[in-house]
Write a structure and sequence with these properties.
Strand order of the largest sheet: 3-4-5-2-1-6
Helix content: 25-40%
CATH class: Alpha Beta
CATH superfamily: Beta Polymerase, domain 2
Number of domains: 1
Largest sheet: 6 strands, mixed
Shape: globular
CATH architecture: 2-Layer Sandwich
Low-confidence stretches: none
Amino acid sequence: MSQSPFGTLNAIAQVIYDKKGFNILALDVQGLSSITDFLLIAEGNIDRHISSIGHAVVEELESQGEKPLHLEGLKTGDWAVLDFGDVMVHLFSPGLRERYSLEKLWQESKIIELEIDVQTPQRASIR
């Protein structure tokens, strides 16, 4: 990653917020997961909203030189996974987030405080 994972987490969280995603949570799973160091979990209203958020995140990170290692669920769904190596993003519909409850699965992880600019909404959607 060209920037720190915390910078990447904040950039992703800002895009999600700007696209009207909600219930944004970042977890430090270093030492608990063998596939990533950080999880960012958020919700969108419906499958198109989740897809729109996911595409905006990919576009923003690619503009910063970060390419996803793997993308899943952007075309179909109520659960999308964006794998950026050190940071993995899960975008859920509210019902599926509750059903799979990743927060409970990773309850031993540390919650990361995110820096989201709530004064300038819609920045990401202007592009």
